[in-house]
Amino acid sequence: MSSPPGGQRDPDFPGAATRPGASTRSITLALSAAVTIAIAAVFFFLSSNHTEINEDDHSAAIEAQDIMQILGEQGESGEGMVIQRMDKDDPTRLVAEIAVDRLDPDGPLHRNADAPRAWLFADDGTSWYIEADEGRFYIPAGEDTPESGVLKGHVRVRRYAASDDRPAPETTPPLLTATTDEPLHFDLDVLMFETEGRLHVHTDRLDFTGRGVYVVLNEKREKITYLRVDQGERLAYTPASASTSPMDRQPSPEIPAGPAQPEQPESIGRASPTSPTAAAVVPVAWQPAVQPSPAEPTGPKIDLYRVEFKGNVQAARGRQVIRSDTLTVWARLIDNKIPPDDTPAPLSVRGPLPVLLSFAPFASTPAVDTATEAPTPGTPVTPDSQVLPDETATDGDTQPVVLTWDGPMEVNPLDGAPEPLTMGDNIALRFDVTEGHVEFEDTQSNARGRAQSVAYFAGRERVELLGPAGSIRLESPDTGTISGVNSMYIELAAGVVTVPTAGELTSRPDRPEPERKHIKWSSSALFQFALDDAGRMTDRIERARFEGDVAGTDRDASLRGDHLDAMFDTPEGRSPRLIQIDVDNARGTDGKGGSLAGEHMRVHFDTRSAVLVPRRVILDGSASASR
């Protein structure tokens, strides 16, 4: 932080020189970014030196230099003052207006203001309004605008939609409101803003609360270079389809294709990654002094950053909840916005978790026939042919995402694309723990799971569960358990779940152990789910594949093979019905002396029966059957 002329410094502003490392916060980061920018943007015009002229409807407006001369040289006070700043390229357009009920000198370089109010009129037609009960400003000798200062008492910032008339602060609904009752410090020399108190920001789509916000802005690049929230509380985001905010109707910027776009160094976005709420506001008064030449590139502005939330992190959407110690977000902002293609796609109806567990019961013991086509022992079956629990379907698009945490949030600008964003994603999240497991659950069905880390890649709609030493576990009281898995990849857009490691499926835990069904594999497993009309992954299983020493058991019956492929028919609202299995190098026993074997076994099941009944068994290559 540089010192004022003559080595003087505003004692009211604590400064950042003694402040430890940078921080920030946001699952949709822009949440706090939007807040601080909302507060900070109003001050940007103060650091310019444009000519002031009076508007016809503001005859009381006085030039800033005249005010400073009167108060500085004569030590007098003034009441009912209004200062206006005009667009230097269009002297008829008002870009900013400052008003105070009273302005008093406090020494040679400080001024105290009663009821300071400021308007900032952006060139996109939107406007910002900031007000406080009082303020104290430091104005260096020879300058006519504050370099630093503090606003106190009911500090409020509001952003309004574009309109022909000036909004009425008390009656016009704002697009964004940011409030704090604690002092707000600012230093325009280095574009720093800080409040140690509780800050609340609200829009139609975002609601944020946190304590201790500290931010440093980069005026030329329109980005946040340093932002910290000391203690997080709550961040809620409602998807655009559930919002009626006028901001939702703003056009999105043209989005370049994936990671092929040139990255810009030292950049961190200052707009909301989930909403146009904090879309760039570029008032003429704080444009860079040197404008880009026509020869310079004019493509979209790309900013990269990493955001980390710490301390009892919980993210919830409807009945689905995930808990961890930390949440890390990597983001690529394009023209200060999150590309719409990278907003999360909700799952259809119940989601895949509960039904992912419904294939455990692979084992039935039909009678063995010595004919070539015969029922086969150890044939896999579904758990119970029952109607799925009646769960009230909700529109996933309208449910808010709520993030809570009780520690700091930290943001770091990135010079190049981080590894999580090198596959075409613009947003990536990862939940981690230092000890124990990341835990997630469906509170309605009581299905739950755990892993050491859970990652989500928004562009590809890919979820990754990682857990060394087989620590991944998914369980549902209605269906069963998946355990012993090291990693699991869920492709939401394709409806595919891949388990590239060994694992085990077990049927419902409420059954006595002798009646529980198991299937184990040593290499990998794959599950294919149906997609709905909107292309979203549903919970309707279509196929399950197991590789490597596959073993299914049911009481005393068993079925083994090198490869097992199961096909399902899953009508909406009912449990999956097994219609066919294929087993390579098959060996089966019924626990009563009967057995079947073959290089390849195919079993067709009766689709008309209420219970699982093998209709035809085909054995190929060195087949044998005994009873």
Q: How is this structure best summarized?
A:
It contains 3 helices and 35 strands.
Helix and strand topology:
Elements: H1 30-44, H2 64-74, E1 78-86, E2 94-105, E3 110-114, E4 117-121, E5 127-131, E6 134-138, E7 148-152, E8 155-160, E9 176-180, E10 184-187, E11 192-203, E12 206-218, E13 223-237, E14 302-317, E15 320-334, H3 352-356, E16 401-404, E17 409-413, E18 427-432, E19 438-442, E20 447-451, E21 453-457, E22 462-466, E23 472-476, E24 480-485, E25 487-491, E26 496-499, E27 503-507, E28 517-521, E29 524-531, E30 537-554, E31 557-569, E32 577-589, E33 595-605, E34 614-620, E35 624-626
Protein architecture, described:
The protein is mostly beta strands and 627 residues long. The protein folds into two domains: 5-248 and 259-288, Sandwich (lipopolysaccharide transport protein A fold); 352-399 and 461-626, no CATH class. It has helices spanning 30-44, 64-74, 352-356; strands at 78-86, 94-105, 110-114, 117-121, 127-131, 134-138, 148-152, 155-160, 176-180, 184-187, 192-203, 206-218, 223-237, 302-317, 320-334, 401-404, 409-413, 427-432, 438-442, 447-451, 453-457, 462-466, 472-476, 480-485, 487-491, 496-499, 503-507, 517-521, 524-531, 537-554, 557-569, 577-589, 595-605, 614-620, 624-626. It has a 35-stranded antiparallel β-sheet that branches. The chain starts with 29 loop residues before the first helix and ends with a strand.
